[in-house]
Amino acid sequence: MTALVTGREEGRGSPAGLERHGQPGLFVVLEGTDRAGRSTHVRRLEQHLRYRGRGVTRTSLATSLLTAKAIRAAKRERRTDPVETVLLYAADLAERIEQVILPSLRAGLVVLADRYVYTPMARAATHGVDPGWLDRLFSFAPAPDLTLLLDVDAETALARQGRHGPDRYEAGMDLGLSSDALESFRLFQDRLHTWFEAQASHYNFTRIEARGTPDAVAALIEPVVDTFLAGR
Amino acid sequence: MPSDPAHAAVDPARRGLLIVAEGLDGSGKSTTLDGLARWLERRGRKVRTVAWEPSELVRRAAADPRSRTALTPRVAALMAAADAQRQVGAKVARRLAHCDVVLADRYAWTAIAREVARGLELDWSIELHRTLPAPDLILFHRGEAGSAVERALSTRPPSVRSAAVGAAYGAFVERLLAAFEALVDRGRDGSGTPWPTRVVALDARADPAANATIARAAIRSIVEPAGPAGAG
């Protein structure tokens, strides 16, 4: 009989989930709720590291060749099955791990990820998807070396809304928390914030107080990353 | 679903039922299901047949030469699982809610066997499909690799019916068979298929009438559970 890879002997599926990537590069993830400033600080951190002579690759959610379009279509069509949504995000992530993240780590680069498995997990879990199943689903993803959780409360996130306000997805409108988009956004982001707080020690997040100005937050992030790099 | 207490509380002779036929090409799945459909309709049940359709997302990606490098087994499995959640899972759940009998010509086992044959871990692949509605009964049609290869190649153009293609496909079918047998073993020891569903193995070489008798008896044991002594 043909031998099967069961996955059991590899220790997959453990609660904290992810295994080390074992490559010479460094994998840094910025996570947090919407309007926490992730994209801004990924860009700033990229520049900071480049000026210190580090080669950097940047990647963010829903940018894969094969699945990004399907994710946009699901949002446009207001499809709300949280399992379908998280599977699409997992496909997006799997492609970026195989095509971008692992090759960059093998080449010794610093990979900066604007969100990773944690945002899709948080969104799915707050929509009632079994957290144990989510851990097992994402067990293919390598563990980051450093995960910075940009911590802003829901009130701060709400205050950072632009003129156009949140989209339905960011506001979690499908959950029926409120018919008012801003109130729904506040309530949904609060749920996400609670999830991130509850999982901080489980997934080894390094919390960054991110309510300040971009300069103030960057001044907190950069020393953490520099110290981490110096220790390797 | 068997694991759903509310579902189980409904009269088993009237509630929705999901009966799944699995196995290699040409193993008699359609013959079994056609016979069961007629038999169930004669018993007054509304019967719907669903097929495990190939994923549209994967089909489109495979047709695009730029996408082929990114379409790895894991990415394809996740894309197909997202599609199945919407196209099969949601459809089956709706029919079960209407108390129909759903006969599925292939279901998650086919996807799992193909994913494992392409090198993915059995445990992970099982988890991937756990969120689909749980079948009440899986009828595994145990066939031989040789006849499945013959049947598959007979539908291909003559240009691809070479000995090399046959040998490569034969090796793939052997891996499919090994994965199906691993699932049957798990069904037997209760370790999850991924659901705690009863599995009945039918011999693809046996008289279809004999297989139909076995399949009907298995369904009767679900819809007419043994009552108190003397009841039946």
Task: Explain what this protein looks like in three dimensions.
The complex is a heterodimer of chains A (232) and B (232). By secondary structure, chain A is of the alpha/beta class. Chain A is built from eight helices and five strands. Chain A has helices at 38-50, 68-76, 82-106, 118-126, 131-137, 154-159, 181-199, 214-230, and strands spanning 26-31, 56-60, 110-114, 146-151, 205-209. A five-stranded parallel beta sheet of chain A has the order 2-3-1-4-5, sandwiched between helices. The longest helix of chain A is centred in the middle third of the chain and has 25 residues, at 82-106. The termini of chain A are far apart. The model of chain B has no long low-confidence stretch (mean pLDDT 87). Chain B has 232 residues and is an alpha/beta fold. The two termini of chain B are 25 Å apart. Chain B contains nine helices and five strands; from the N terminus they run H-E-H-E-H-H-E-H-H-E-H-H-E-H. Chain B has a five-stranded parallel beta sheet with strand order 2-3-1-4-5, sandwiched between helices. Chain B has a single domain (24-223), classed as P-loop containing nucleotide triphosphate hydrolases (Rossmann fold), CATH 3.40.50. Classes of the chains: A alpha/beta (232), B alpha/beta (232). Chains A and B meet through helix 3 and helix 5 of A and helix 4, helix 6 and helix 8 of B.
For the sheet with most strands of chain A, the description reads: 5 strands, parallel
Uncertain parts of chain B: none
The top-level CATH class of chain B is Alpha Beta
Task: Outline the low-pLDDT stretches of chain A.
Answer: 7-15
Which architecture of chain A would the CATH scheme give at its second level? 3-Layer(aba) Sandwich
Instruction: Give the CA-CA distance, first to last residue of chain B.
Output: 25 Å
Q: Under CATH, the topology of chain B is which? A: Rossmann fold
Q: How many structural domains does the protein architecture of chain B include?
A: 1
N to C succession of SSEs of chain A: EHEHHEHHEHHEH
Any idea what the shape of chain B is?
Answer: globular
Total count of strands of chain B? 5
Number of domains of chain A: 1
The coarse silhouette of chain A is globular
CATH architecture of chain B: 3-Layer(aba) Sandwich
- Describe the strand arrangement of the main beta sheet of chain A, using strand numbers: 2-3-1-4-5
What's the average pLDDT of chain A?
89
As a percent range, the share of strand residues of chain B is 5-15%
